[in-house]
Amino acid sequence: MSILPPGPLQSQCQDQSNNAISSWVYQWSSPPPWCGSRAIRISRPKGACKRRQAVISQAASVEALPALADGRGSTAIQVLRGARDRANDMQAEAKAMARAANASVYTPELVSNKYRSRPIKVLRRTMEILIGVGSFALKLVLDQSNGQLDQNKRIRAVDLRKICTKLGPTFVKIGQGLSTRPDLCPPEYLEELSQLQDALPTFPDAEAFSCIEKELGLPLDSIFSSISPSPIAAASLGQVYKAQLKYSGQVVAVKVQRPGIEEAIGLDFYLLRGLGFLINKYVDVISSDVVALIDEFARRVYQELNYVQEGQNARRFKKLYADKQDVLVPDIFWDYTSGKVLTMEWVDGVKLNEQAAIERQGLKVLDLVNTGIQCSLRQLLEYGYFHADPHPGNLLATPEGKLAFLDFGMMSETPEEARFAIIGHVVHMVNRDYEAMARDYYALDFLSPDVDVSPIVPALQNFFDGALNSTVSELNFKTIVDGLGAVLYQYPFNVPAYYALILRSLTVLEGLALYADPNFKVLAASYPYFAKRLLTDPNPYLRDALIELLFKDGRFRWNRLENLLVQGRKDRDFSAKDALQPVLKLLLAPDGEQLRILVIKEAVRVTEAVILGTVIDTYNSIPNPMRTLIVSGNTAGPLMMSDTEQENMIKLRDQVFRIWRLLRSSENFDPALLQPIVQVLQEPDARSFGGRVIGGITQRFAARLLQQVLRAPPTVPASTL
């Protein structure tokens, strides 16, 4: 990172909206001794870079503060350095954006216009694909007819890897997706296709080094004190070198884009769009808009070609998710980044599918997979910004036990409404509320509002009643996707393009988990996160989902609450305070009367269970002779309750006590968290609520007492003389 020199500093900051550039000069108000009277010249855009201007201005004014002799000077210097570093970082990022100003953006019209006038090139590429894919399919047919399908698995896996490599980046990405699906491909195929992640053919080093110098406008030896003579890894879109920065000595990874890559993928997407039109027109079994899905995927791949965009993606991802101690995201060096060159912090680690190597470091693969799942749930359902290409080459286990995310070229976002709808969908699936599940497809944008969902309900019921033999957590993600897929094909669903990337992301993670443990259940590992969100998130949609989960037929399901707390506590971010406050606010809301009636009824039942359960325990602890005297020989006991009723009451009391112990044993439990509850209960509406609870308890015990008074006296057997 550069520092302010003793001479003028010039930079340009490009406004992406109107590309307007203007200049502004800041003069030191009180120049420090080392600076003299020089000015700092900062290029400032008219719009988007005002924030950068403010930070730079702040840096200049803080720099001008004289050192204080009373010890406060060190604080001022720290503030100065932080502001100066931020300003320099923004300037460097702006310069990188300017270097990538001519990066291509995917549009269907651009691709169509470019290749429609090149029929010979299109025909040649079509024949290459047909020959490559067709020859592989023919070999499989011959192996099956000769009874050698299993015997030749290894040979055919090598053939498939070579075909994907030969056909180029588009097919390499298809092979990368298959390499993480042990449920779709035999182990021999997984092993071979995994080489597509970072062991692809390289292009000449001279071309790579020339690209670096051309893109950054500097000689190679003025940037790096050393750089590996050959690539450390080669991926579908570029290859990576390990280098050491000359100005700081920091070790970095330098990714350089493959020459001619845009031409290659553009032609493939042109052909795929043509195939998509044919599928939309003639294949009725697929109801989704295939062309729209291809266009969405193409836009993501073209974004990968702009390495400045990838760097910005990495920064955003780091800010959102690297706050956890077990997640690592490398930083970006903007001074040495452009549209075709990306310089980032070097990360030592082992690919997540190299189980033996990970265990040799004393780490557990499933712990790292769990970290990946929890981080992915936050990506998909909390912030909505997610890594859409998490194959093993992009996920590393560091020696410290952290999970490092790499390669941020392909990212996507989940709409806010869909995030809550997905969580609600899981709740409805647990409750087997198939009507609510069908209605969720409106919020997920799978169905237009004018589509009647009533015919879909029986199809959902037929699938899930057969699949949910025990619990939802026993299902794997593929089972649900396949089952829902069968339903989607039968009805007018239109799967949004973002959802296809979500499916890809989740299936890749499940594939990594199954690679480590064939019995691993992703949904079971996801339960703690879902439980925590349901218990703590104040969003109205999730509050309603929690009520649906806990109440049924006017009765509170304490076993569900206990299970949610048990699962939610497994999430490190679970807070007992957060689990109580949203429920109280919902309970005392103006529109919460119906819920208050249910809660009052349940509060009376629980209070009765606690008091009478204690009476029953006390009675059972008394010696038998004394019991007979107390109840005057009545076998029904002192409370006129059957054995079944007594057992149910004690069971309810014990369950409530267990739930309270779960809350108290939370790591962040503090008795002070009850203080806001007391404050809330002092409000007028809350006092009315409390009075209704006390009135209900009083009535219940009065009825019990009356029953005791009016009970028939015990029959005294006649004495025999």
Automatic annotation (TrEMBL):
Pfam families: ABC1. PANTHER family: CHAPERONE-ACTIVITY OF BC1 COMPLEX CABC1 -RELATED (PTHR10566), PROTEIN ACTIVITY OF BC1 COMPLEX KINASE 3, CHLOROPLASTIC (PTHR10566:SF120). InterPro entries: ABC1_dom, Kinase-like_dom_sf, Prot_kinase_dom, UbiB_kinase. CDD domains: ABC1_ADCK3-like. Residues 226-556 form the Protein kinase domain. It comes from the Eukaryota. Belongs to the protein kinase superfamily. ADCK protein kinase family. This is Protein kinase domain-containing protein.
